[in-house]
Amino acid sequence: MLNAVRPFVRGARKLVAKSKLRSLPGNGFPQSVLPAAAYLVSEKTDERAEKIADRIEAERDRLASFGSQKVDILYSPKPGSAGSTVTADLRPSHGEVMQFSMEQVARTGKTRRWGLFMHLLAREHRSANILELGTCAGISGSYIGSSPHCQQLRTIEGSPALAELARSVLPLTVSNPTVINALFDEALDDILPVIEPIDFLFIDGHHEKIATLHYWQRVRPKLRDGAIVVFDDISWSQDMRDGWNELVREPHFSHAMDFGIVGVCIYRTAGTKPPRQWDLRAIAGVGKGVGNPHGWRN
Ligand SMILES: C[S@@+](CC[C@H](N)C(=O)[O-])C[C@H]1O[C@@H](n2cnc3c(N)ncnc32)[C@H](O)[C@@H]1O
Asked: Which CATH number belongs to the domain containing residue 41 in this structure?
């Protein structure tokens, strides 16, 4: 019975997604985000982007084929571990170092669908200088950094083994990748004083509310006006959702777009009122539920 109903539910969701998508143009929605949003509905894009995705997915499969071989990864710490407010001298402690199998590592990277979504975002935005916090094996970095206008992808990873892996994965599709093996704050201490204005920032690691707000605030002065800022896993936990609910009140964003899995914001250097908010979970086909991650130890 359930199986019989499923295609109808899927069809109804698609209709809602299409109708929501149709409502966006001419309604003040950022032009540069439209193709990526449309892709989430059609799941079809051009041949060049699909070929890049095929190359990245072949590499993901190769990584997964190492099966149960183990690699260190920094798991996200418990909510509250960084205190209750962002202070100027805050340095959030990273979470527990866990061992993931190569299969898990391959799965941890953003999926083809979300990878292509970010590739299209970076392409339409003509992002040249890209910074990623949370490399893992370099899957999302490959999608974003292979966008045609990328001149420099810098990506930060705390696990030496994962940074090493990413150094072999990224050059397959990205022309100028730099993998920095350090904790986020240590790497930012080094690069922020010298980095050119950032066009695209992707924060995908240390998924804890205060830590996320802290990293965003640290990088903010180095963003170019109009930069894209993508926050991953905004519904991973209630704590991350609370973080997103603070970000959508941030006057330094002109738009805050909730795709359920990721939050996409447009940065503005000067702003006095909260951003325009867009609930685009229907477009992404994502429900309003919030995750309850396990693995946190007292
Ligand atoms: C969700 S994974 C990143 C996935 C990757 N963006 C992708 O989609 O392919 C998060 C990564 O951030 C790293 N990480 C977490 N906290 C960190 C910290 N404080 N400093 C440096 N790396 C950290 C973890 O080791 C992990 O590899």
From this structure: 3.40.50.150
